[in-house]
Structures are given as C-alpha cells and as structure tokens.
Amino acid sequence: MAITIPIRQAGAPTQTRLKTPAGATLTSLPPLSVYIHVPWCVRKCPYCDFNSHAVPAELPERAYLDALRADLEQALPSIWGRQVISVFLGGGTPSLLSAAALDEILAMLRAYLNLWPDAEITMEANPGTAEAGRFRDYAASGVNRLSLGIQSFDDAQLKKLGRIHDAAQARAAIEMAQRAVSRVNLDVMFALPGQDMAACMDDVQQALSFGTEHLSLYHLTLEPNTVFAKYPPTLPDDDTSAAMQDAIEVALDTAGLQRYEVSAYAKPGARSRHNLNYWEFGDYLGLGPGAHGKLSFHDRIVREARLRSPDTWMAGAMARDGSHIAETRSVGPDELPFEFMLNALRLKEGVAATTFSERTGLSLAAISRALQAATARGLLDSDPTRLRATPLGWRFLNDLQEMFL
Ligand SMILES: C[S@@+](CC[C@H](N)C(=O)[O-])C[C@H]1O[C@@H](n2cnc3c(N)ncnc32)[C@H](O)[C@@H]1O
Ligand code: SF4
After folding, report:
1. How much distance in Å is there from the Cα of 311 to the middle of ligand 1?
2. Which residue's CA lies nearest to atom 2 of ligand 2?
3. 151 CB less than 6 Å from ligand 1?
4. Are strands 283-287 and 32-38 parallel, antiparallel or unpaired?
5. Are 201 and 249 in contact (CB under 8 A)?
6. What is the pLDDT of residues 149-195, one digit of tens each?
7. Hey, what CATH topology would domain 32-277 get?
8. How far is the CA of 150 from the centre of ligand 2 (A)?
9. Which region, left, alpha or beta, applies to residue 11 given φ > 0 means left and ψ of -120 to 50 means alpha?
C-alpha cells in the first residue's frame, strides 16, 4: 500500500510526496568491506576531483588516527558481528602515512572488527612517495595488495599531468611494490593531452612489462571543478580514444589480463575482491573525510557520506555527536534498481539474476518491463539467469543503465 508522508526542506513550504511501498525484507546480508579515506596529497593534480587536499606543512597524523578511531567506534553498532572481507585505504595518498600509522590502523581494525584471516587489504600509493622500507613495513602490518598511481611512463606527459614523479621513479616504485607484496595493481590513464595511439600503446606495453596481476586503465575525463576543466588541454578525439580502448583490450588480453570491468583487467584469480564487492552491490563502511558507505539491514539499505573537509570531519568525529556525518539516507525501493544496475552492468560478465533480489530485497518482477525493453533493443543479454550487458549495451552503458531509472 502506498503511503503519503509530509516532507520539509529548509526554506521551502511543507510539501507532500508519495512514498512507494517499503522494499521487501533482505533475507541475508551481503559481504562487507571497509574503505578508509586518506585525504592528503603532496599536491593536487590538475585532472583530479577526488577529495584530496594539498598536505599541510606537517601531516596531522595523530589527529587523523584519533578521529579515525572515533569514526569507527561510532560506526560499530551498524555492522556489529559482521565479517569484513576486504579493506581498501584510498585517497588522496595513503602512502603519505608512516609505517607506524598504518600499523595502528590495521591493528585497530583487527581489534574492533571481525576481519577475515585472508581479507584483501589494499593500499593506494603514489610513486612520488614510495620508499622500499616503508612498503615492506606496510606489508608486515598486513597490507597484501598495493595499487600504484602510475598514469604514464612518459616524462613529458607526467609533467603535463602535474605528477610529482617521473617515469624512472614510477618504475622503481613498481619494483619496490613487487618486492613487498605479491599483489600489485598499476593505474594507467589514456586519451591524455596530445597523446597518439603509439604513445598510448607504449605506456600499455611498459605497464605490461612488469607482469603485475592487475591493471586499471582509465580514460582521462575532464571533471567539473578541476584545473583541466577550467583550462582544457587538447585531448584525442572520440574516434581515437575509442580505438585506443579497443587496442588496449586486445594487448592486455594477449598478455593474459582479462577485462572484467569497464576499466579493470586481471590475470585469472587476481580480480580485486574489494572492487568486485562494490560492483556486485555488496556493503561497505566508509571511514574518513568524504568517504561514502552503503550498509544493508534486514529492512532497509542505507547510504551515508562523511564530511569532506579533513578538519571538520576530524572535529566532528572527535565530538562524538554524529556531526562528522554529512548525510545518511535510506535508499527507496524506487531507486534501488538503478543503483544496482549502475554497478552490476559495469562487470563484463554481469551478475547472477538472483543477486538482484538478494541484494535489493526486490523481486525481479519489479524491473521486468525495463529488462524486456533492454533485451529487445539488444543492450541486455537474453540469458534469464544473468543480468549482463551485450557488447552493444556495454558500448552504450549509460543509456542501458538509465533504462532502470
Ligand atoms: C584516487 S586516485 C589514487 C592514486 C594516487 N592518489 C595517485 O594518484 O597516485 C585513483 C586513480 O584514479 C585515476 N584518476 C584520477 N582522476 C582521473 C580522471 N579525471 N580521469 C581518469 N582517471 C582518473 C588515476 O589513475 C588514479 O591513479
Ligand atoms: S595524487 Fe592521486 S588523489 Fe592526489 S590529486 Fe593526484 S590523482 Fe588525485
């Protein structure tokens, strides 16, 4: 039965809105991951719209660790007793943290959470902050996967991208990472300012030459409110960047790295468990400034976001009054199909059709009209046991996802 509830927004008169019936009960909770955001970088790259801030003269490491502990302690009632399958320290530049700080964070997670013994624990690192000893110490504390922001192996390109490292430092960082942990990912971007096909493929071949188990190949996008958006560089045209994307997929496939998500490629068995959990609509607790979380309960799915400013997040977390949380809201059953598809259809193999009901609490019948329309347009695979984009659907992914709005 639909119910009508009054809602009130600041500065607006009271209105009424029709609320759709509550979603069905979740019979089981999905796997749970933890994301920790480290908000500082040596300096801000001109293309980047992540919540990253130039590091102050002195990194407020102690204050950050105390706030992180307070943030976690306040979040515990929402995840009580649940097992954690993966941890991801992202940024920003987590490799700015000292080995002792990282050790304290992982010890804290182990003390408070039910962390799986073989949990995937990834840390992002910038080659400009890499040190062999520190990587070894991170690994000794429990980090078992390092993700390096390489972007390119071309010195002139790295300068244009405002990176703090050159190609030689990138290569050295990869070797240090490979000596420290067995699982290494490299982030490389393509369709870069002034880049042609040969330069793109040179970057790709150099990335492949290290034999890492995982590569992430990101198409550079001009994000609003970045320096590149204000002063746009000359970028390859759409046909060239589409040809780059195709050539990348072929080269990586030849080298044994399968494309399994829009930007992610892995050797067999090396897919990122943490990222897969996002795309399969699993749960994640987001700690730290600007971190987003998604948590399921038997009767609702909640999204939350922390304050973006490091200082106000730290002050709010320490006040222990919930003021470090910018937003908490239950995702309505009318929003769940789009949110689910936005993630699941990024996966080349899609997901089992049963996952939809398991993770949203809705029956597949709730989206049967959109499923039929997408299949009829050749965008969705007709196999009823899977929710998977066809090659055409993947090429026009936004159009396909929007059919579930
Ligand atoms: C949050 S960053 C973390 C890595 C680390 N901070 C670094 O840059 O070395 C994750 C990755 O997102 C990618 N990225 C950032 N901004 C991008 C953009 N505008 N377009 C495409 N990829 C982007 C980069 O490849 C980057 O390594
Ligand atoms: S180092 Fe990484 S997170 Fe920091 S500004 Fe550059 S791309 Fe963004």
Report:
1. 23
2. 92
3. yes
4. parallel
5. no
6. 999 999 999 999 999 999 999 999 999 999 999 999 999 999 999 99
7. TIM Barrel (3.20.20)
8. 11
9. left
Query: What are 118-153's pLDDT values in tens digits?
Result: 999 999 999 999 999 999 999 999 999 999 999 999
Ligand 1, pocket-test mutation among 43, 189, 222, most atoms within 8 A of CB:
189
Euclidean distance between CA atoms 20 and 26, whole angstroms: 17
Which of 50, 188, 275, when mutated, tests ligand 1's pocket best, judged by the most ligand atoms within 8 Å of its CB?
A: 50
Indicate which ligand has the atom closest to the C-alpha of 235: 1
Residue nearest to atom 1 of ligand 2 (CA): 41
Reported as a single tens digit per residue, the pLDDT across 47-61 is: 999 999 999 999 999
Name the token pair of 258.
Answer: 């399968």
Rounded to the nearest angstrom, the distance between the alpha carbon of 404 and the centre of ligand 2 is 32
Compute the CA torsion angle 373, 374, 378, 384 (nearest 10 deg): -100
- Give the domain ranges of the chain: 32-277, 341-402
Of 364, 397, 391, residue with least CA distance to 378: 391
CB of 304 within 8 A of CB of 285?
Answer: no
